[in-house]
Amino acid sequence: MASETTAAHGAEGAEHAAEGGSLVFHPMDQFIVKPLFGGDTIAWYTPTNVTLWMALAILAIIGLLVLSTSKRAIVPTRMQSIAELAYGFIYKMLEDICGKEGVKYFPYVMTLFMFIVTANFLGLLPMSFTTTSHFAVTVVLALAVFLTVTVLGFVKNGAGFLSLFWVSSAPLALRPILAIIELISYFVRPVSHSIRLAGNVMAGHAVIKVFAGFAAVAAISPVSVLAITAMYGLEVLVAFIQAYVFTILTCVYLKDALHPHH
Amino acid sequence: MATETTGAVGTCVDSHGSAIGMPQLCFDWFPNQIFWLVVTLVVVFLVLSRVALPRIAAILAERKGTITNDLAAAEDLKAKAVEAEEAYNKALADARAEAQRIASEARAEIQADLDDAIAKADAEIAAKAAESEKAIAEIRAGALESIKLVAKDTATELVTALGGKADADAIAGAVDARMKG
């Protein structure tokens, strides 16, 4: 359904270009949120292309982690190996950074990683809608991490959590200044955490669309297609690396909540 | 179809259906995105924590257990193989020693038999030799007597032929004296 609407939209974009008679770029149109079943208003409950692509992400995760392991084979099939690799990858990351106490938060961290990585890769399909390119999505993810870490830090350590901002290894005179810097950097965390993910994904997708706009000119279309191919390869890397970065930063922040002392 | 589904025309989308500015900053859409994101995260979390992660953990644990068991079994079998080899070597050494013992026993027996036979033969030879010596001595004694007799007879005949009177005792004494000389 979404592909139909996007296709329809793409056709319309082409019409615009024809009307204008010159190069017309709409690199940001791919990020427009649309109702799935027509209508003009987008209320909080309206099923939109966001709903569709998040549902596809859920299905992909179920296919990858649940269906592939349904045989519970001792000698794994390829798909089961992927599920086991993903599990081991995040589990080891969490254990290495947070230690044994961090392991009980594994389902939360795994949820974040699996959602981001599948959403990123689904966003690489042509005509798709990339949910992780929206600040609304990544900010909620980052704020969830930020609030969890802050609450957990105070619950686990009480006022001792504030020692995170009091660098005891620095000279006494410097400590208040450092405390202010640490405090600011602590509150900037969710901003950088969310904008890094959405910004990377959005920029790559927009650049591909810009190159695609140039492909309409015969003289430069081979260069344009080559550039799209190269960008796409880069985007595949970015899709994984950004999910990885988001997850590893989550682990690092979680470590601060569990062990606030420098 | 195309015109109906272009979506909400408003502050974020112009009349052609293109984005005005960054769609990421369109606040009208935030509640919708946030709502569906929360729904998605809850579903993913439930699927992972209830089904996927326990299952994968069980598979990994089972595999680890299987590998550990197999390694232990392999270790056992290896120890058994070493044991069997030792038993084999011991049996081989025993058999070799037994064979050697039997061979030496047989050799000793044969040697004893041989020694017996040799001793018996030696004794027989010695007896035969003594007998022969005795016979030879007898023959030698017999021959001396015969010579004496012939010499006496010849002497008597010679004395008679020369016209003497043969004195048997004198002749016998003369012959004996000559024979001794």
UniProtKB/TrEMBL annotation, chain B:
InterPro entries: ATP_synth_b/b'su_bac/chlpt (IPR002146), ATP_synthase_B_chain (IPR050059). The gene is atpF. It is found in: Cell membrane; Endomembrane system. GO terms for cellular component: endomembrane system; plasma membrane; proton-transporting ATP synthase complex. F-type ATPases have 2 components, F(1) - the catalytic core - and F(0) - the membrane proton channel. F(1) has five subunits: alpha(3), beta(3), gamma(1), delta(1), epsilon(1). F(0) has three main subunits: a(1), b(2) and c(10-14). The alpha and beta chains form an alternating ring which encloses part of the gamma chain. F(1) is attached to F(0) by a central stalk formed by the gamma and epsilon chains, while a peripheral stalk is formed by the delta and b chains. Component of the F(0) channel, it forms part of the peripheral stalk, linking F(1) to F(0). The b'-subunit is a diverged and duplicated form of b found in plants and photosynthetic bacteria. Its main location: membrane. It is a single-pass membrane protein. It comes from Ruegeria marisrubri. Keywords: ATP synthesis, Cell membrane, CF(0), Coiled coil, Hydrogen ion transport, Ion transport, Membrane, Transmembrane, Transmembrane helix, Transport. The keyword Transmembrane helix applies. The chain crosses the membrane at residues 34-53. GO terms for molecular function: proton-transporting ATP synthase activity, rotational mechanism; proton-transporting ATPase activity, rotational mechanism. This is ATP synthase subunit b. Residues 74-140 form a coiled coil. CDD domains: ATP-synt_Fo_b. The keyword Ion transport applies.
